[in-house]
């Protein structure tokens, strides 16, 4: 009996089981369902994804313990002043997520608004000479570095599965996208949103993460049970719906680079983090933890529109561009 592929939805975002892809019993059905979700809303919940629950729970435990350290300890691994070197610790209010703004005056105006009230720690692969990791000194928080790197590579295995599924969904060779994601030029980010006043969020006096889209190919998101993530309706800009946590699911969304790469066939959808609607207490939001894993094509790789995404009636909208050139220009604007 064929396994069920779509097992539900949350506010229009499908919940898809990867089981039939992983065990090869119905790869194409899973691939088609994933691509369809990316084409319509740009987001999908994935269950049976192969990343063990105990490993995810363990990383959340490390994250909570890290952010509970004194500020002076966390600042022993400081994020560099440059926005293009996304590694190490960033304290609350340091980063302001912005959208596609290339006018310097407009960018300064946006940056002057309410900062994002969150703190983060960012990790990449150890062998990345262009963007080295920044760790706490040896002995300060034993085991943290090893846990982060172990989780980075566990997420990498899931990424490869998703790239193979997307390739099949696009009716390309199964390893087509994998071949241009070999480095991996990825970023694991631990996020902590401290408790803030709901009225300050509603008045835009503070922000958790403002409305934005992601830069790269795909983002895998693990979130706690607090909620607060909201996804914009691509067909009705300005209308946001909660992407409520689903037990055991990873939320995956397409990034801007994949949208450009697919000649806009795939949607990179605007999303934000606000106050969860049903868990606020005494006018305060609960604190929130999440772990996104941002996946990018090899920075050295120049890509053109994917085969099958353009035609005489639907010509290419974009010039070839390198992943690194694109990502770095976007990263620099956020810091």
TrEMBL record:
Fe2OG dioxygenase domain residues: 184-297
Keyword Transmembrane recorded: no
InterPro entries reported in the protein's UniProt record: DIOX_N, IPNS-like_FE2OG_OXY, IPNS-like_sf, Iron_ascorbate_oxido_reductase, Oxoglu/Fe-dep_dioxygenase_dom
Alphabetical list of Gene3D superfamilies matching this protein: B-lactam Antibiotic, Isopenicillin N Synthase, Chain
Record's keyword terms, sorted: Dioxygenase, Iron, Metal-binding, Oxidoreductase
PANTHER family reported for this sequence: 2-OXOGLUTARATE (2OG) AND FE(II)-DEPENDENT OXYGENASE SUPERFAMILY PROTEIN-RELATED
Entry's family note: Belongs to the iron/ascorbate-dependent oxidoreductase family.
Listed name of the protein: Thymine dioxygenase
Protein species of origin: Daedalea quercina L-15889
The organism's taxonomic lineage, starting at the top: Eukaryota, Fungi, Dikarya, Basidiomycota, Agaricomycotina
């Amino acid at each position: 009996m064929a396994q069920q592929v779509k097992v539900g939805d949350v506010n229009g975002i499908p919940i898809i089981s990867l089981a039939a892809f992983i065990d090869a019993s119905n790869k194409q059905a899973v691939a088609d369902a994933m691509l369809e979700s990316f084409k319509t809303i740009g987001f999908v919940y994935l269950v049976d994804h192969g990343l063990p629950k105990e490993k995810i729970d363990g990383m959340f435990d490390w994250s909570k313990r890290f952010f509970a350290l004194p500020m002076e300890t966390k600042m022993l691994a400081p994020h560099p002043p440059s926005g293009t070197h996304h590694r190490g610790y960033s304290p609350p209010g340091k980063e302001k997520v912005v959208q596609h703004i290339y006018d310097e005056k407009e960018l300064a105006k946006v940056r002057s608004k309410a900062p994002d009230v969150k703190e983060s720690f960012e990790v990449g692969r150890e062998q990345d000479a262009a963007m080295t990791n920044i760790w706490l000194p040896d002995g300060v928080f034993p085991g943290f570095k090893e846990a982060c790197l172990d989780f980075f590579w566990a997420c990498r295995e899931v990424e490869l599965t998703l790239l193979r599924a997307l390739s099949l969904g696009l009716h390309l060779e199964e390893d087509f996208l994998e071949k241009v994601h070999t480095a991996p030029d990825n970023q694991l980010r631990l996020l902590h949103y401290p408790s803030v006043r709901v009225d300050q969020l509603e008045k835009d006096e503070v922000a958790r993460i403002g409305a934005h889209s992601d830069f790269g190919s795909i983002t895998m998101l693990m979130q706690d049970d607090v909620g607060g993530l909201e996804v914009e309706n691509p067909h009705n800009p300005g209308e946001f719906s909660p992407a409520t946590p689903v037990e055991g699911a990873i939320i995956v969304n397409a990034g801007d680079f994949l949208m450009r790469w697919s000649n806009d066939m795939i949607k990179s959808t605007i999303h934000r983090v606000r106050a969860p609607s049903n868990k606020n207490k005494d006018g305060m939001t609960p604190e929130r933890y999440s772990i996104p894993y941002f996946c990018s094509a090899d920075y050295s790789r120049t890509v053109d529109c994917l085969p099958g995404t353009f035609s005489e009636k639907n010509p290419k909208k974009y010039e070839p561009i390198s992943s690194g050139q694109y990502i770095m220009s976007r990263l620099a604007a956020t810091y």
